Backbone:
Protein backbone atom coordinates (compact mmCIF):
# COMPACT_ATOMS: atom_id res chain seq x y z
CA UNK A 1 0.00 0.00 0.00
CA UNK A 2 1.42 3.40 -1.01
CA UNK A 3 2.12 5.95 1.69
CA UNK A 4 -0.35 8.82 1.88
CA UNK A 5 0.81 12.02 0.15
CA UNK A 6 0.33 15.54 1.48
CA UNK A 7 0.50 19.08 0.22
CA UNK A 8 1.52 22.14 2.17
CA UNK A 9 -0.13 25.49 1.50
CA UNK A 10 0.29 28.88 3.14
CA UNK A 11 -3.03 30.43 4.12
CA UNK A 12 -2.03 33.92 2.98
CA UNK A 13 -2.09 35.44 6.46
CA UNK A 14 0.84 36.04 8.81
CA UNK A 15 1.05 34.41 12.24
CA UNK A 16 -0.54 36.49 15.01
CA UNK A 17 1.96 39.05 16.26
CA UNK A 18 3.99 39.11 13.02
CA UNK A 19 3.51 42.04 10.64
CA UNK A 20 3.30 41.54 6.86
CA UNK A 21 6.70 43.12 6.13
CA UNK A 22 8.47 40.83 8.60
CA UNK A 23 6.68 37.75 7.23
CA UNK A 24 7.60 38.79 3.67
CA UNK A 25 11.27 39.23 4.60
CA UNK A 26 11.43 35.91 6.45
CA UNK A 27 9.75 34.03 3.58
CA UNK A 28 12.14 35.58 1.06
CA UNK A 29 15.08 34.48 3.23
CA UNK A 30 13.62 30.98 3.67
CA UNK A 31 13.08 30.48 -0.06
CA UNK A 32 16.24 32.48 -0.97
CA UNK A 33 14.37 34.66 -3.46
CA UNK A 34 13.61 38.39 -3.72
CA UNK A 35 10.72 39.68 -1.59
CA UNK A 36 8.73 40.49 -4.74
CA UNK A 37 8.41 36.74 -5.50
CA UNK A 38 6.77 35.95 -2.16
CA UNK A 39 4.20 38.76 -2.25
CA UNK A 40 1.64 36.36 -3.77
CA UNK A 41 1.83 34.27 -0.60
CA UNK A 42 0.62 37.26 1.43
CA UNK A 43 -2.47 37.95 -0.69
CA UNK A 44 -4.86 36.43 1.86
CA UNK A 45 -5.55 33.44 -0.41
CA UNK A 46 -4.11 29.93 0.03
CA UNK A 47 -1.01 29.19 -2.06
CA UNK A 48 0.34 25.65 -2.48
CA UNK A 49 4.03 25.48 -1.55
CA UNK A 50 4.77 21.78 -2.18
CA UNK A 51 2.80 18.68 -3.22
CA UNK A 52 3.43 14.95 -2.89
CA UNK A 53 5.20 15.03 0.49
CA UNK A 54 5.24 12.32 3.12
CA UNK A 55 3.72 13.25 6.48
CA UNK A 56 7.00 13.89 8.33
CA UNK A 57 8.36 16.17 5.59
CA UNK A 58 5.05 18.03 5.33
CA UNK A 59 5.08 18.66 9.10
CA UNK A 60 8.64 20.02 8.83
CA UNK A 61 7.49 22.40 6.07
CA UNK A 62 4.65 23.58 8.32
CA UNK A 63 7.05 24.23 11.19
CA UNK A 64 9.48 26.20 9.01
CA UNK A 65 6.70 28.29 7.47
CA UNK A 66 5.25 29.10 10.90
CA UNK A 67 8.69 30.02 12.21
CA UNK A 68 9.00 32.33 9.21
CA UNK A 69 5.76 34.00 10.31
CA UNK A 70 3.20 32.48 7.91
CA UNK A 71 0.15 30.40 8.77
CA UNK A 72 0.21 27.15 6.79
CA UNK A 73 -1.92 24.02 6.40
CA UNK A 74 -1.15 20.43 5.54
CA UNK A 75 -3.75 18.56 3.48
CA UNK A 76 -3.96 15.07 2.04
CA UNK A 77 -3.61 14.92 -1.74
CA UNK A 78 -3.26 12.33 -4.49
CA UNK A 79 -0.12 10.17 -4.24
CA UNK A 80 1.14 11.40 -7.63
CA UNK A 81 0.05 15.04 -7.85
CA UNK A 82 -0.76 16.49 -11.23
CA UNK A 83 1.37 19.49 -12.12
CA UNK A 84 -1.18 22.15 -12.96
CA UNK A 85 1.13 25.06 -12.10
CA UNK A 86 -1.69 27.00 -10.48
CA UNK A 87 -0.49 28.51 -7.19
CA UNK A 88 2.61 26.30 -7.09
CA UNK A 89 5.92 27.82 -6.01
CA UNK A 90 8.88 27.45 -8.38
CA UNK A 91 10.98 24.30 -7.98
CA UNK A 92 14.01 26.33 -6.92
CA UNK A 93 12.02 27.80 -4.03
CA UNK A 94 10.80 24.36 -2.94
CA UNK A 95 14.33 22.94 -3.11
CA UNK A 96 15.62 25.72 -0.86
CA UNK A 97 12.93 24.84 1.71
CA UNK A 98 13.96 21.18 1.48
CA UNK A 99 17.56 22.11 2.19
CA UNK A 100 16.44 24.22 5.13
CA UNK A 101 14.38 21.29 6.45
CA UNK A 102 17.52 19.19 6.72
CA UNK A 103 19.03 21.73 9.14
CA UNK A 104 19.68 20.22 12.60
CA UNK A 105 18.30 23.21 14.51
CA UNK A 106 14.60 22.27 14.25
CA UNK A 107 12.52 22.64 17.38
CA UNK A 108 9.09 21.70 18.67
CA UNK A 109 6.45 23.96 20.11
CA UNK A 110 6.18 23.80 23.92
CA UNK A 111 3.58 21.38 25.34
CA UNK A 112 0.12 22.86 25.48
CA UNK A 113 0.69 25.33 22.64
CA UNK A 114 -2.42 25.78 20.50
CA UNK A 115 -1.33 25.25 16.88
CA UNK A 116 -4.78 25.49 15.34
CA UNK A 117 -5.85 28.30 13.02
CA UNK A 118 -9.29 28.64 14.58
CA UNK A 119 -10.40 31.94 16.03
CA UNK A 120 -11.79 32.00 19.57
CA UNK A 121 -15.55 32.50 19.84
CA UNK A 122 -16.73 35.99 20.77
CA UNK A 123 -17.42 36.76 24.44
CA UNK A 124 -20.99 36.09 25.53
CA UNK A 125 -23.13 39.13 26.14
CA UNK A 126 -25.66 38.10 28.80
CA UNK A 127 -28.09 40.66 30.18
CA UNK A 128 -28.33 40.12 33.96
CA UNK A 129 -30.05 43.44 34.68
CA UNK A 130 -33.39 41.73 35.40
CA UNK A 131 -31.98 39.54 38.17
CA UNK A 132 -31.81 40.48 41.85
CA UNK A 133 -30.43 38.77 44.95
CA UNK A 134 -32.30 38.36 48.24
CA UNK A 135 -30.72 39.43 51.51
CA UNK A 136 -28.86 36.67 53.41
CA UNK A 137 -31.15 34.61 55.66
CA UNK A 138 -34.38 35.55 53.88
CA UNK A 139 -36.83 32.69 53.26
CA UNK A 140 -37.58 32.69 49.58
CA UNK A 141 -40.71 30.57 49.73
CA UNK A 142 -43.54 29.95 52.18
CA UNK A 143 -43.50 26.82 54.35
CA UNK A 144 -46.21 24.31 53.41
CA UNK A 145 -47.43 21.40 55.45
CA UNK A 146 -46.99 18.31 53.36
CA UNK A 147 -49.29 15.45 54.42
CA UNK A 148 -47.63 12.16 55.24
CA UNK A 149 -48.05 9.72 52.34
CA UNK A 150 -50.57 6.92 52.78
CA UNK A 151 -49.12 3.63 51.64
CA UNK A 152 -51.44 0.62 51.72
CA UNK A 153 -49.44 -2.51 52.65
CA UNK A 154 -52.25 -4.72 53.96
CA UNK A 155 -51.87 -7.11 51.01
CA UNK A 156 -48.19 -7.81 51.84
CA UNK A 157 -47.20 -10.76 54.04
CA UNK A 158 -44.00 -12.01 55.66
CA UNK A 159 -42.81 -15.59 55.36
CA UNK A 160 -41.17 -16.95 58.51
CA UNK A 161 -37.54 -17.97 58.17
CA UNK A 162 -36.58 -21.41 59.39
CA UNK A 163 -34.44 -21.49 62.54
CA UNK A 164 -30.82 -22.35 61.74
CA UNK A 165 -29.63 -25.71 63.04
CA UNK A 166 -26.39 -25.09 65.01
CA UNK A 167 -25.37 -28.74 64.80
CA UNK A 168 -25.48 -28.77 61.01
CA UNK A 169 -23.08 -25.83 60.86
CA UNK A 170 -20.41 -27.32 63.18
CA UNK A 171 -17.79 -29.72 61.72
CA UNK A 172 -18.41 -33.34 62.61
CA UNK A 173 -15.91 -35.02 64.89
CA UNK A 174 -15.13 -38.60 63.88
Residues:
Amino acid sequence: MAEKAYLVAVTGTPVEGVDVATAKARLAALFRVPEARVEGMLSGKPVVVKKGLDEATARRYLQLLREAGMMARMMACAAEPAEDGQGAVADGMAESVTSAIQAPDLSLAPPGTDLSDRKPPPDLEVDLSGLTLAEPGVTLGEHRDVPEPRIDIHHLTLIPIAEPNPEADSPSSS
Remarks:
- Residues 5-101 form one domain.
- The helical segments are 20-31, 35-38, 55-67, 91-101, 166-169.
- Strands lie at 5-14, 47-53, 70-77.
- The two ends are 76 Å apart (CA to CA).
